[in-house]
Amino acid sequence: MHNCLFCKIASHEIPAEILYEDEQIIAFKDISPQAPVHFLVVPKRHIANLMELTPADNALIGHIVFCAQKIAKNQGCEEKGARFVFNCKQHGGQTVGHVHLHTLGKRNLEWPPG
Ligand code: AMP
Ligand code: ZN
Asked: In Å, what is the CA distance from 28 to each residue of 25, 56, 62, 74?
């Protein structure tokens, strides 16, 4: 088994503030929040980054996005919106090598990012 932080969170080996969980995915608060709302949704199966996705992952990714939408709504982001983002590899600023969807809400975010 590879040494992967988000695999360890998915298997409860490392604790996190879990917001939602089912057989396929887990959502938890980002440990270093960049906005009043900042959480991650990840597949429990190890996928290194977005470039590794295949058509077989379509339903999984839809499930991740819809989960993020539901939590964002629960956390009061429906009216003003939020940022939903997959950082990917070096140029995307990815630091954890297990695909994850960030959701940031409850403040105005600039575009383009720095
Ligand atoms: P990225 O830079 O897109 O790979 O994002 C990785 C995110 O994981 C960062 O926002 C980190 O703050 C977050 N992170 C790192 N370690 C943990 C942890 N143990 N629990 C929750 N979030 C974490
Ligand atoms: Zn992993």
From this structure: 10, 24, 18, 14
**Which protein residues have their CB within 5 A of the ion that is ligand 2?**
4, 6-7, 46, 98
Shortest CA distance to 94 belongs to which of 2, 15, 5, 23?
5
pLDDT tens digits along 2-34: 799 999 999 999 999 999 999 999 999 999 999
Task: Give the separation between CA 53 and CA 59, rounded to whole angstroms.
Answer: 11
Give the model confidence (pLDDT) of 60-73 as tens digits. Answer: 999 999 999 999 99
